[in-house]
Amino acid sequence: MANFTRKYAAYALILFLGSLLLGGCGGGNNSGLLTGDPEALANYLREAAFEIREGETIVMDMGTLFCKGIIPCGYGNNLATPYICLSLDGLPGNPPNQFPWTYRLRQDEALLLFGKTPPACVYFGMQEFVGLRYFPEKGYSDRLYAMVGDATNQLLINTRGKEAPFDANFILITTGNKTTEERVVRALEKAGYQEDLRNIHPLPEELVHFGLDEEGDQFNFLLRAALIENENTSYWEDMGSMRLLRLTPEEEIPSNPYDIPDLRVHGTGDNEFYLTPALNELEEALKAAYPDYDVTTLSVTQWLPDGLDPLANNVDTLGATSDTTYLITDPFTLKEGDFVMACGVLHDVTEKALYNNVILYGWTVLEDLNGTRFEGLRELLGVAEANSKKTLASSALPFIPNNSYADRLYALKVSRNGTDPNEDVACLEVPAPSCDRMKLQELALAFRAYCEPETKIAPAYTEILHDRAFLFRPKNQ
Asked: Is residue 258, in this structure, part of any structural domain at all?
């Protein structure tokens, strides 16, 4: 039976890699840049005694999943970056995964992902998370969504292609065992697959709980891509024709764990605080523009923690990536005639980020979930978005036209009708709920700044000027 499995797996791999080399990874002129021999790779993987199972890539439509009750909340999703996940069946004889996008791994298994990166866009990144962790005191697996290491983004990824790092071929190996990695890499090398295609996501044994039973961590992989230039792209339908292989050694390989990774350092020493007077002027101009309203300042604070501490201490981070900052307002409600004005820095203009955005979240406490584990859980669902490349660009100019730094700032009005008497004011509309679960009675604004070009990671919170937000309510209300 083992020989049959190995022969079948090798044959399937030949077909899969053959399609990859002939354009199955997105096609086009770049496919010839992969010079490896698929038949040889299948043979070398077979010689390394790997059982091979194929998984798939899927796109998570957070709004649909929320409305259907498949996920309890929106997990603080970013509307600007749809999510591609990996889907793997559990191994025979072991419990099923809790979700199609979570999976357990044995300490010596490897995931091998082939495909193409997104087409030209402002940002993309790939990251591995512990999505769910078993807690003995609770008796069940609960959400963690803490990152295992830094993201692999377009500034770091190893790829090949004429438009690299976009629309380019890549290989990603994910494993917790260095011996397994060596065997997979050796097979790739023998088969002629270039080193400059390979990327490694190590899973350090000291931080994760391997295992295929109920107590094993359930991992989750997210590929995020923001603001693809060609809005008519088919990337979200074909997902770069990415293909996923699960490699399981026929006999378990002794533990050979990775060291806990050193994370990239945030910050360059340069900051945006020279813009404070201009931002103060913008704040005063916003308040003066609407004299018939009472104004309440909404506190803006750091939302999600950074680094490996959440993983080590079981802190839920909602899938936060190392590539962005996370700021959020106090929750607020918008009654008839109310609106919120947000303002801040265009961090791409100051070169502290590739882009930044404002996301409107449903923040209402959910009442359709049973059990104490969901008590007080909010919608956490992103429903509207504005970003520095589109809506927010030049949006401060109507309010402070004579300030020389106006082009580095933004102003945004958030309301239920999404309009302003001044047509030059950038506006964001609170949409109508699209399903019964979605209430959007209580709301919050979140602010992200993605990936400082110099450091290839999120800017330091201490070097960016934080966003501000103000609730406007008619004085006669």
From this structure: no
